[in-house]
């Protein structure tokens, strides 16, 4: 992808747009070849911020969660939504209609190839809700092109993609947010007693989630003209078209891309991003990665051990989901509980941080640490043994067999 990357903008995200609006509103429009009309909406009427103060956005992957993400951003007065991208014609056209209906014009541009959208210098931020095998490549490409990114969970398909995404966000000074709204919204009742000190010193938490993804051997079907199948596959191994292979339904046990190894880690990463995210937040290890994964062969469950002694178990027998073990009778001092910035939940948190350049609640590093738990667990179950993990080196020390699972081969030209 490096040869196709656009150079970063040298100016701040809003400067060129603000300068343009300023010039035209002061009568400089005569110097522009085509007429440009400043509407009352553009100037900020009806409680809408002027165009110079709105975040210009586009979306890549506009189906299921992508459709929901688009609606959330499109509904914000401080966002100007200008472009949609999807390799499926029907999804792309529907997304454009939604934007055009909102603004009562036909200005939204649709793209089949995400690189064309990311090359636009007027776009400040994008949201990504493609299948998982595309996430890392798109987030990195967006950062290279000076875009802030809201990326749906699970953020990665492999362990190796995580550090590359964090590095891109930091190198290009981008705001990159993961997309699990459940971490705070669904699990607050688990998180708050832990952070308030009500449970004493926290020892462990259990998560029940699954299954792992599976091989896909679906037969070839006639490929419709309404999908760019080669671009849908992208870095994944070539495979014949089958509608169930690329179906975006939320099932993880077959009949959706979430079910298959080439595109996803199955329920272990899909729902794991939510559950492990809430669990690591509750026991305050979201800034860390486990140092060991213990495989309990007799009962087929895992224990993730963190620096400092806290533990996270997966599918521990006779233990409910999100069950915390503290220290009975002990009460410790409360810690301030991190929360969303701005208004409007996790979407508003991202937009606020685009404006302020703060790290969002689900900063990419937190998302990567969460999904690393899923990937480490998958590898331990596949190898049916315990693993040591060196988070600093991002390797399994002296374990060549396990290190073969760090990444997956990608079709050219889609390399990290």
TrEMBL record:
Gfo/Idh/MocA-like oxidoreductase N-terminal domain span: 60-177
Keyword match Ubl conjugation: no
UniProt-listed Enzyme Commission number(s): 1.-.-.-
Any single Pfam family the record assigns to this protein: GFO_IDH_MocA
Domain Gfo/Idh/MocA-like oxidoreductase bacterial type C-terminal: 217-293, 347-415
Domain of life: Bacteria
GO molecular function: nucleotide binding; oxidoreductase activity
Keywords tagged on the record: Oxidoreductase
Protein name, UniProt field: Putative 4,5-dihydroxyphthalate dehydrogenase
InterPro entries: Gfo/Idh/MocA-like_OxRdtase_N, Gfo/Idh/MocA_oxidrdct_glycsds, Gfo/Idh/MocA_OxRdtase_bact_C, NAD(P)-bd_dom_sf, TAT_signal
Source taxonomy: Bacteria, Pseudomonadati, Planctomycetota, Planctomycetia, Pirellulales
């Amino acid at each position: 992808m490096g040869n196709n990357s656009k150079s970063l903008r040298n100016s701040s995200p809003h400067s060129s747009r603000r300068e343009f609006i300023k010039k035209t509103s002061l009568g400089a429009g005569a110097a522009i070849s085509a007429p440009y009309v400043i509407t009352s909406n553009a100037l900020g009427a009806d409680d809408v911020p002027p165009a110079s103060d709105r975040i210009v956005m586009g979306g890549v992957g506009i189906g299921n969660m992508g459709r929901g993400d688009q609606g959330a951003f499109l509904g914000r007065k401080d966002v100007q939504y200008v472009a949609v991208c999807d390799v499926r014609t029907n999804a792309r056209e529907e997304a454009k209609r939604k934007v055009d209906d909102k603004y009562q014009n036909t200005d939204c541009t649709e793209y089949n190839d995400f690189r064309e959208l990311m090359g636009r210098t007027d776009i400040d931020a994008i949201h990504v809700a493609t299948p998982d095998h595309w996430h890392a490549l798109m987030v990195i490409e967006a950062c290279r092109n000076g875009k802030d990114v809201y990326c749906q969970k699970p953020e990665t398909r492999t362990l190796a993609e995580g550090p590359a995404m964090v590095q891109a966000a930091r190198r290009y000074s981008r705001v990159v947010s993961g997309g699990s709204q459940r971490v705070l919204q669904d699990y607050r009742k688990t998180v708050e007693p832990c952070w308030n000190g009500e449970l004493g010193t926290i020892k462990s938490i259990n998560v029940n989630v699954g299954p792992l993804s599976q091989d896909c051997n679906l037969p070839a079907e006639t490929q419709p003209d309404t999908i760019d199948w080669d671009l849908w596959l992208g870095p994944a191994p070539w495979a014949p078209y089958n509608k169930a292979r690329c179906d975006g339904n939320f099932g993880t046990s077959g009949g959706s891309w979430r079910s298959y190894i080439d595109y996803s880690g199955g329920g272990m990463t899909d729902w794991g991003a939510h559950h492990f995210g809430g669990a690591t937040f509750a026991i305050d290890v979201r800034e860390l990665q486990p140092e060991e994964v213990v495989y309990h062969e007799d009962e087929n469950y895992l224990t993730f051990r963190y620096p400092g002694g806290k533990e996270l178990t997966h599918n521990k027998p006779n233990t409910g989901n999100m069950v915390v073990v503290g220290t009975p009778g002990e009460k410790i001092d409360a810690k301030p509980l991190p929360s969303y910035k701005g208004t409007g939940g996790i979407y508003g948190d991202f937009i606020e941080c685009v404006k302020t350049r703060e790290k969002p609640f689900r900063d990419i590093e937190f998302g990567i640490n969460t999904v690393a738990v899923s990937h480490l667990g998958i590898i331990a179950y596949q190898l049916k043994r315990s693993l040591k993990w060196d988070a600093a080196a991002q390797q399994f020390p002296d374990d060549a067999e396990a290190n073969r699972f760090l990444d997956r081969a990608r079709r050219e030209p889609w390399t990290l």
